[in-house]
Queue: 4 jobs
Job 1
Amino acid sequence: MTREFSCIISRLCKRDRRSSLLSLQGLFSLPGLIGLLFLLSLLTLLATGANAAEPNADEIVERSNLAYYYAGTDGSATVKMTITDSAERVRTREFSMLRYDVKDGAEQKFYVYFRTPADVEGMIFMVWKNTKKDDDRWLYIPAVDLVKRVAAKNKRSSFAGSHSTYEDVSGRSTGDDTHELIGSENIDGREAYVILNRPKDADIVEFSEYKVWIDKVHFLPLKGEYFDKAGKLYKTLLSERIEVIDDIATVVQGRVTVEGRGSTVIQFSNVKYNVGITEKIFDERYLRRPPRRWIK
Amino acid sequence: MKSLLLKIVTHAIARPKTALALFVIATVIFLAMVPRIKIDTDPENMLSPDEPVRIAQTQVKRDFALHDSIIVGIVDDKSSTGVFTPETLERIAALSYEIVKIDGVIAADLLSPVTTDDISGDGGMLTIEPLMGRTVIDEAAALRVRDRALANPILKDMLVSGDGTAVLLSVPIKEKHESHRISTEIARIIDEIKAGGAGTEEYHITGLAVAEDTFGVEMFRQMGISAPLAGLLIFLIMLFFFRSFALVASAMIVAMMTVIWTTGALIGAGFSMHIMSSMIPIFLMPIAVLDSIHILSDFHTRYAAEAATPSSDGKADKKAIILSTVDELFTPMFFTSLTSAIGFGSLILTPIPPVRVFGAFVALGIVLAWFITIVFIPVFVTLLSDSTLKKFGSDTGNGTPGNNSTDRLKRFQLSLGRFAVTHSKKIVVVSLIVFGVSLFGITKTEVNDNPTRWFKHSHPIRVAERVLNSHFGGTYMAYLVLTAPEPGVITRPETLKYIESLQAHMTDVDVVGKTTSITDVVKKVSYELNDAADEMYRVPDTSKAVAQYLFLYEMSGDADDLYHLVDPEYAKANIWVQLKSGDNKEMKRVETAAAAYFEKNPPPFGIKTNWAGLTYLNVVWQDKMVYGMLKSLGSGAVLVFIVMTLLFRSALIGALSMIPLTITVAFIYGIIGYVGKFYDMPIAVLSALTLGISIDFAIHFAERTRRLRTESGSWAETVDRVFDEPVRAIIRNMVVISLGFVPLFFSPLVPYQTVGFFFAAIMAVSGGTTLLLLPALMNILKGPLRLK
């Protein structure tokens, strides 16, 4: 659910923009042309993966984590999940979401306000993502006006009945797996690193390993494949649509497919970054009284 | 027909080698079909795919993402804390983690302490997570696992036994027909874990899916063991009677050809080998052998007699003799085959597809057996050298004195005939009493089936079933589905409360160990949300609150758990009903109890109900089978009577020849009633066998009596002559068939044992009544029968 405000502007992205500036303002100046040619050749080298300075697996994963889950310092979006189950039945969940990054690559806070289905409207889910201990989670149940703390021990369980797990949505700690760069592949015209990840503690997860294809330019994951304990592919994650919003490459549509159990399409709209969300709204008091400035 | 057949036989024995080659070619062609065999061991296919209950079953499995499951129970009766010690729990965890790696297991739906969520509200924090992880640090932690499970009404008696000593894993599988393979792999994992150090706990594997699939596997194994073993024994007994390897081999070749042609035809026609059709060889073998014995017995008597005449030079014209034998036996053999074919053919009237296929192909096999016997045996005899044939006749004492045992048998036969005539009235009275007592026994018959019971009592699957059902809510699952006319109805408090009282009502039936519904989840969430206050263990007051509780569960637990009990639109609810027994009669009681409840308390909001689940499915096809069998048995009997009347051109003799059959059926099913054995699928199907074979002896006896009466001077002389060669053939048949099927008694599968019992009983009772009651009645009725 953080995909929409994900993506920090990677160094590469910035360089990309600078080059376009160069081309506009100093196209006819020699230094500008030289600079442009230099940048273009550098980009080509990077894109083909022939550069000796290619990042290692851990760096790629770290940068992808930042690009995907920590874009901007805060963000808001409307999220629609369309869940199709194994019997081809479709149900939808819509919610507004606010995010605040306490520290890039580390602590974050989320505020999720459910809008549909109608009988759960007004239910609120709040998460403090922690790095040193289990996350803190709260749920507000309007029908009985009750705020309840919810344990967050199992991060591999489904988020809101979708095919995504909590970890798919809010990020799996990069330190929980070992990472290995096993090659480069072209995914729909985009060059990507292929990273193989193996869990350090295999007992607490349902997969044996997973592969992620990370875009070499904006570092967003393009595809993920999860393999079960028997080594069979059972879950696929796809970034179906990526748009640049506020200069930040953002996944605006993703799909999670679980073998034999259907799929979930997640669409993000009204994506905004750096809108000035304050940390204080991520508090129990704001569960009974949603911050109207962000939650309309 | 007869002249045509005789023409064929004449041509065949004129060119015996060509005829033999044709038989070999035909056999090779049918044999070539066999590799295309499709095996179907799923009892669900006892119902045709468009049967409403099967459509409903598929729908329910789809609606609630349900799968057939293998049940693995871990029980420890030797320790007071049962399996709840750190070591045993860790072994259970290890087992669970290994099970999910097996191909064909739906890992995400495994029910086990390491995968199934418990919900608790301890310390103001709502926790929805599995009961335990891979490691259990100490005894206190182990006992906490137990106590948490026992405090959860959903998990108690399902995952953890109510007495707190045992744990149950439910392993969902993609395909039911893989149950046996997967259960074998689970057993292997258990052995490996035990090899790494085990305590006093025991591991059990059972479940309806395993029982059904394992039965299929065992059945085909039995087909490879019991049938050849029975064949071997029949061969040896016949060798004892006829003392000629070559001739006895001919009967066995006839039996084998019959089996190969019939199964080849079945496979070639594109039918799959079902549980029933796997029994075809077992059924056809004795029928083919019976035909051969009659023809060999008669040929052998004639050959020996002719060879013994002084002018014969010890030789006889085998071609002429075999032709006259075929001529003589054509009619009784045709009619015994016809009646047997009618008996099995009547199964076509049942509404159960595999039984129809079985009936049709056994009927076809009987006709083939008759044809092969009549053509092949003469060809075979023609090809034998005269010296072989001479040996054949020399030792069996047909009219030739010298062999003591044969003399004794002959004397016994004669005295049997005379006894029947002199004590005819007493025999009739005793028979009537036996018949009456048998009929009373039939009234005590209980209709019931349970695929688990197809295994003998000591089979691991049945042991597991007994042990686990003594600890848990039940290893047999049925589903009661409530369908509302519109979405959202299920979350209404009124609906949930209705489900609650319906569950309470069903739990009153003692076979129901436990029921689970969406109401249980809602109540548990309410309880845990409200700081475990007992009065909050209830359905909340508004539909919104219910929906939000369920959404909370979806948010924090495994959403899939929820959707086994309710559909995502809240238009359907599924009540899991766990039964301690898979007996159909028990399932019927539960169904009746629920129906009575619906009658008195109609469901709210126009909700409709229906049953599903394997346990329930078995009830449906059982009902169809019982009444279908009765109908087919009835119409088969009428048809046989008509054929008899036509054969003897006398309704009186027709009726008379029906008597051994009637008494045999009554006697066998009477015994079943008295012994308390359930009238189940195998026993129902065997009524066709009884109908088909019980009349054979009567046909031979009545036909030969009539013929011999015309050749004899008096009734008394006729009796003596009938009780010579014809009765010897009957006695030989009785011995060969009843002893031949003794190997079936040692089968681990109850239906095979039952078949063995039926063959012995049919031979004994129909043979006994044919040899005693039939002559007694003929003696009494000799006037009207024109036998005087």
Job 2
Amino acid sequence: MSTDAHPYRGYWILWLILLAVTVIMILIEGANLPLGLLAAILLVGSAIKATLIIFYYMHLKFEHMSLILTVLVGLFVTAILMFVLPAIDGYHVLANKLTS
Amino acid sequence: MSQTAIAQADWGGGASPFGVTWQKMMMWFFIVTDALLFAGLLVSYGVIRITAGAWPAQGEVFSLTYIAAMTFVLISSSATMACAVAAAERGERKMVTLCLWLTILGGFGFLGMQAYEWSVFIHEGGGLAANPWGPPTFSQFFFIITGFHGFHVLTGVTVLLVVAIRQLMGRYSAAGVENAGLYWHFVDLVWVFVFALFYLI
């Protein structure tokens, strides 16, 4: 990530990438996409930003595999389960509310 | 080969399985649990929003340009924090001082912008029980989610101030700066999801 001549350059390149992804996400938001598609694209964009921050700003990439797995499995698997299951439930409640 | 030797060959982690100090390990564990707290808040926001059916258009309630500027400030402060951690590792004291105080400036900037956002929101009639744009749950989630995040930023600025003042007194370690940095990047990480899920979708 860093060389001795330019020890901080990598962090500022990553800063530019993070800003670029943010701007792209804002532009996509303004494109009037269907809500489900928009949510999926923006979640992927957020996941890319989160992975870059965790791996390079927080240096997780350079830790032992045991710590990497503890953090990633703990975070992503639980978070994905938490997001997917209640969303299905939410649509179920909405459908029942509209038909009743 | 004795049993211990076999165990050591298979798994060299008996003494230090994660290969980090206990401070760093506990910071990571804290970050995982705290992230799940925010995940819980955002999930409940999603479920309530889906079941509500109708929801205010965020573009009419907030200025997206303003929120983007807040995001810019926080991401930039994360970049300066990363530089502070790298400088501390390399023992460049002046660079550590500069980057730490720039990060603190970014933190205060973000907090100030959020305070202004809240005051505009309240001034336009938004409250815990009232929402001129639609269901009141919208403004409840606004205050709870951005309030929780803002409190984390305030905590982070406090931690950074302690580290920065100690650093000026010459009492700091690279590991200490790194741990404060881990927390600060986490605050930025949470904002990535709050920004996408609450303001953009």
Job 3
Amino acid sequence: METSIENLLQDYRKRTEETSLMHAMQLNIGLLTVLQKQRANSKLRSLAAIKIIAVILGIIWVLFLAVLVYGAGFKYPYFSISASAIIIFTVIAIVVYIKHFILISQINYSESITATQKKLSELKLSTINVARVLFLQMPFYTTWFWSSTWIHYDELNFWLITFPITLAFTVLAIWLYKNISPANSHKKWFRILFNSPEWTLVIKANEFIKVIDDFENEDA
Amino acid sequence: METQNQKDLFLKLIQENRGIIFRICNSYCQTKNDREDLAQEIIYQLWKSSHSFNNTNKFSTWMYRIALNVAISSYRKTKRSAPVIYLTEDDTAFNKSEETGHDKEEQFELLQKFINELPELDRALMLLHLDAKPAAEIAEILGITETNISTKISRIKEKLKQKFSAIK
């Protein structure tokens, strides 16, 4: 028996519309108020909550270090300089992170699909800058315990072990700062470094930008 | 959406066009729970974006933009390996008049599967095409040119035809 796709689709349309959840939905202001509360609650339960916790922990860490720096003053210059540098990089990262988070939540969904999705993906991708900045603080975690007395007392060990370690961390931090970019997201070291669900979404945002570009291209 | 009347009018417009939400939820979600969740998110975003609706635009065009953007974003966050596509409009892309041995249900499932394999943007395009939207409106919603729309629809139809041919 000959059957056309059109007939199949029409039959299915009738079937699906009969069971449509939307048919049962009558919109009113009361329902929307409930919906707004539900959405707010579900967002708090989702990944957004983890991000908020990360920002709060970051702020607590900065405040803790600030108190220590204030207490140490000029008595422990290596500690004060190292902790201050860590505070600066962490604050920059927190500000950038919050800024991106707000921009993503304020995205205009009423623009065209390609424009909105590209903006959204580019914003997600730009959170990589947070990681780049955070890596720059790495060497300062190897210098906070230095002291002039200790360096003079054990000069050989300082120049043979401690200083090369700091130097290695400095080179690595600068290298990572320069090389962490969407262009390198396909590389193995990058995928190992950013192997978590949140970063996977960021990396996929880069791939989606390419998909959108292809979609916009008439020859694609 | 300042006054109560404007709010009511806005809700009425959403209610009248609720089929758009229904079709999009069915296209981008696998389970009933996910569909309901996405439907709520779309309605929430429509309400939140109500200030951006310009009376010079067609309401369904504006609604499609928001609903598809929310659906694609949500789909990318919780991407599943094989979401089910439920088509709701007839398509004249191909006639399968030859005897195939498949019954109606099997043919439908195959069509679902094939469209299901399309990337999310192509799927959005097919959704609009199956909703019999003119090329100009599809172009406005997706943000690509009308020529590009025609080319892409032809290519997608060709792919679907080939897939059906391959299983004969």
Job 4
Amino acid sequence: MAEVFDVAVVGAGPAGVAAACRVAERGARVALVDEGFRPGGQIYRHREGRAPAAIGEWMARLARLKVDVIHRTAVHDALRLDGKFQLRAESVHLEARKIVLATGARELLLPFPGWTLPNVFSAGGLQALVKSGLEVAGKPVVIGGSGPLLLPVAATLAKAGAKVELVCEQARRASLARALPWLARSPRKLAEALSYQAAFGPSRYRTSTWISEAIGTDRLEAVVTNSARRVSCDFAGVSFGLVPNVELAVLLGCELRDGFVVVDRRQQSTVPGVFVAGEPCGIAGVDGALGQGLVAGDAACRDVTVTADVEAARGWYEYKPPPLLRSFALRHEVLELARADTVVCRCEDVRLSRFDPEWSAREAKLATRASMGPCQGRICGPALDAILGYGADCVRCPAKPATFESLLIPEDRK
Amino acid sequence: MDAIVVGAGIVGAAVGEALAADGLAVTVLDAEFPGAGTTSAAMGHVVVMDDSEAQFALTGYSRRLWSERAAELPPDVEDECPGTLWVASDEEELEHAVRRSHFYRERGVEAEVLDSAALEKAEPNLRRGLAGALLVHGDRVIYPPNAARRLLSNAVVRGALAERRVRVEAIEPGRVRVNGSWRETAIVVNAAGVGAPELTPGLAIEPRKGHLVISDRYPGFCRHQLVELGYLKSAHSAGAESVAFNLQPRATGQVLVGSSREFVGLDRSTNRRLVGRMVRRAVDFVPALAALSVLRTWVGFRPSTPDNLPFIGEVDEGVFVAAGHEGLGITTALGTARLLADLVAGRVPEIDPSPYSPLRPMPEAQHG
């Protein structure tokens, strides 16, 4: 039988790295499982040897410690088995006494005419492509959607030499202004926002603006904004917010509230032994994720209360939906951009006209095949919920595509 | 005359359609939405079965009704006619295949026995060295949720009303209770599947859970519905848990893999150990399956009866039952509906209804 870890951490973004480090510092056996090539997660995705300064010290800390880091491994199922937890991935079934889920978030993509054209990406996806070598120097680019994420994405593009023509933020200026007092209490956040804007030019950032259509024949050629302005561009990056990755938590039976995993002050979910840190329990950014990761790591290896120093590491963050996020609440106009013939589910090529507002997520899936494809509704599920109020569909294993072979129980494998 | 059909699964939808076609003022009620229950989890294999004369009569009759309306089914019902290959692992099973081929042919169902070489040619992804197979022509595959929706919309076209999110709490002769108040009707049909015994106490239906696993798209991976000849051993096994090899090519190019059977009430959780056994069995027959990508696993609850036959008929004055079809509800929906409509109208049905009478004596349940 395989070795049983004291703690297995899923996801090597800030929350997962912090949790794994904390567990290792306490001398417990810890595995850190991640889909990527190296730790950092979506936010600190980087090329070999080029870790951003912000995560560099954590990388060094991780490297010094005894952590079994398992890269390029997507956990597709999580279950309780004989008093332990089992994490299942394609090539490995890991067993652990406690679990920390630090599975992050994905972007909310809302359908609009032309959004499926080649070279229209999610904002974070475009940023990741640039970081891994997509050539954008001298090329016109438009970033659109909503939320704080648009700023670093536009800055990354600008630093890579792209001509950032426009950054479209759908929220009203007045709505964003309501977050100012909160930002003023977090000078570092404010400085960060200003430095991003400086990178691409503050005048390019437009509030109350959105991409109402992407135009092109076989690839993107231009976008049209809600004020009927046509902007030629080679690439567009669009994102309307973040959707927490709660699939593994749901498979383990953790309770959700408003789409997020319910946790106590020790980051423990309603399932004893399952701790959750970072975006799955509330969109809170890097600082929140790091703090929660430390708390979760600490709590996962001890049955006592969290130590004071770790409690302090939560820093500015105490989860309530941050005012910042409320400022980016979606306007009804951006929920109504898709036309009858706009594709909503890309995997199964299902257009908006197929959907009946009376349905639920499950009925829509059964009737139209929407969300039955390889992405398993990760993209269209939240979009359909946003635009038609379908709610969430149930989660079934495997949470990510996996081979038949990997569904065999170990003793049944050849 | 008024009729209320309780349950808009494929059986209730088909009954609604048949009664509406007879000119009754039909209302079909569903606690959730059409096809939300067992129908949504079903494989959609329309198959002639031979384990009893009564089962053959109903499945053969129903399959004929499906094939007669194939041309009018919309594309989203995904109707195809791949036939069924009952795979024989050894000579003993092949002899069984030969006997079954005689049974089918004597009753006008086209069937042939393939030897080992012919089977390899018919399904190259099956493992080498199998003894052969029984090929039953004319068996179909459909997509059950949209088939149920289609039948219900046919009923609506004929004047029926379909109401969703209406949970019927009780049935009595001449009325049903919804939200504490009674709705009057001349005829009631309990087509509530695994929920039927709650409304018709004493009806011997128990949920028999099954798992299915579906792959990504691999067009041409297999061409027929593939079932091991030992399937009935699993289907009729008295044990608490059983698996059998059952693999289906979908119109989408996906591969749907079953089957498991267990009695665990209405527990919706995925039994990974049983899924593991089920996949093991499938991979034993189709080794190349191991490397295909799985998109989803789901569970469903077959409304099973002690003698493996459904309940179709009158249980009280004007109160009818059409439920308990175990794993054959998709196949037998149309035959069930025709039979039931004949009984309601007082016509002589095309097949003998007595083996399906809800009032027939029942053997004791065989499992724990």
